[in-house]
Amino acid sequence: MTHIIRTAVCATGAWKAVLLVLIGIVCYLTLTPKPPPGIDLGWDKLNHVAGFAALGFASCLGYPESWRRRASVLGAMVALGGLIEVLQFWVPGRSSEWGDLLADAIGVGVGTFIAVLLLRLLLGSPARAG
């Protein structure tokens, strides 16, 4: 069973694809005037943390080459949060908030922490997954 989990964690190409899908989902949910009911976690900031934690997690597993490369991709995820906040200014029923960007950055950090912890536990190395 551990071998299967290790193989899944090391599938960087698959994690890059997951990351692209997650980016699409996050963009849709944050830029649509009225998101589908039932996906709200009950607090706007928690929604941001959860969505961007998923992006941080997939980013870490998709780009394990080096800390510099990983930091670039994670920075891009935070920048995506900033872009979303700017674009929300023009979306009816949405608002741009610095608090949302902070929640996005916290989410990226949480997802990164979980991915690095998983890599360390399964592979004995926080920097490489493949």
Notable traits:
130 residues, mainly alpha, 0% strand, elongated
What is the structure about, briefly put?
By secondary structure, the protein is mainly alpha-helical. The chain is 74% helix and 0% strand. It has helices at 2-10, 12-31, 44-62, 67-88, 98-123.
Describe the structure.
By secondary structure, this protein is an all-alpha fold. It has one domain. The chain has helices at residues 2-10, 12-31, 44-62, 67-88, 98-123. It starts with a helix and ends in a 7-residue tail after the last helix.
Described by strand count, sense and barrel closure, the largest sheet is: none
**Total number of strands:** 0
The rough form would be described as elongated
Give the rounded overall mean pLDDT: 87
Structural class: mainly alpha
Measured by DSSP, the beta-strand proportion falls in under 5%
The number of helices is: 5
Segments where pLDDT lies below 50 for 5+ residues?
none
Work out the helicity level. Answer: over 70%
Number of separate structural domains: 1
* N→C terminal distance: 18 Å
**Radius of gyration from the alpha-carbon trace, in angstroms:** 15 Å
Order of helices and strands: HHHHH
